[in-house]
Amino acid sequence: MPHPSMVDQLSLGDHVCWACQDDEERTEVLAHLVEAGLRDGQRVVVNSSTGPLAATLAGLAGHGVRVVEAIDRDQLRVVDARPVYLAAGGFDPVRAIDTLIGEVVQARQDHWNGLCSIVDMAWSCQPAPGSEYLDWYEAQINRVVVGGQALRVCLYDRRRFSPTALERIASTHPTRSDDPVPLMRLRRGDPPVGLRIAGESDLSNRRALACVLGSLLDDLPVDGRPVAIDLAGLTFADCATASLLLRTSVAAAPTGLRLVGCSPAVARLLKRLGAERVAGLTVEESTGTDISRSWPTRSTAHQTAECTEVNGRMIR
User: Fold this and answer.
1) What average pLDDT does the segment 67-91 reach?
2) Rounded to 5 degrees, what angle do the CA atoms 142, 47, 295 make?
3) What is the per-residue pLDDT for 309?
């Protein structure tokens, strides 16, 4: 079973595909995630779709989660996923995304540090109109979480999904539970840095990156200033990733794009694929004083956040 330390490496802004072997592992993982979210002053919303809600609550309590207290202070919400995702007999991905956005906004309005959204994806196994949009929906979730106000963990049961289906779905997530550490992290930022990419980008998470780059193009500055993508934390990029960055640069014209903090290997790869021929693109190698910051884990975020506890809530 996954060690709890994997949970402690996650932070707001992560989107994780967590594949579980059985019910026992799912309950243990869920309990670790809920406990970490509560500890970090986040509102935790659990969408359960395996068995009755009472069993989910009992499972959390059995692993030491103080369920009653968390629910009483409205920090923990455990709901049935099926009415949320299969309302009116079908899956409406746009409605589901709007629901998540609303939960993120409400968590901040209620003075929580962010939203920890955990979804048991067993509901998606039910044949229903719209189920063919599951992959698209999972990719679009990245547009919501990269702002750094939500952590999203999608729990998939290996017994319900084929290995091929799981690989396809997992590629819409920047990281997965099989990784020893979060493989790739994506964060949107304020100008001049539109996006920060860290970790490794390859076939296993390329669809997640493609979606976030698409959202960056949707939000190009109206004043025409070039947008910067900070690659100082990108330790590995395959040729397809480099090509995706170049295609994004072409699409960003005439605004222009700056790829800053590139490692020598990434810079060479971009140039080899024709970066110098892309109008408006600037590739800047790492100087050792790049604008990127270290990526917080749950533990460091919990230790360094300037929070005050008020009536059981951790408020910044």
Assistant:
1) 95
2) 40
3) 37
Say yes or no to pLDDT of 84 above 50: yes
Count helices and strands in the chain by DSSP H and E runs: 12, 13
Q: What pLDDT does 292 receive? A: 45
Sheet holding 76-80: strands in order across?
76-80, 43-48, 115-120, 150-157, 15-20, 175-176
Question: Residue 146: its pLDDT value, please?
Answer: 96
Q: Which residues neighbour 59 within 8 Å (Cβ) at sequence distance 6 or greater? A: 27, 30, 31
Give the pLDDT of residue 295.
54
Q: What is the pLDDT of residue 190?
A: 77
Terminal-residue alpha carbon distance, the chain: 34
- CA separation for the pair 260, 196 (Å, rounded): 10
- The CATH number of domain 4-182, selected from 3.40.50.300, 1.10.8.1310, 3.30.750.24, 3.40.710.10: 3.40.50.300
Residue with tokens 């190009």: 220
Helices 239-252 and 264-272 sit at what angle, rounded to 10 degrees? Answer: 70
Those residues whose C-beta lies under 8 Å from the C-beta of residue 316, and which sit 6 or more positions away, are 113, 305, 306, 307, 308
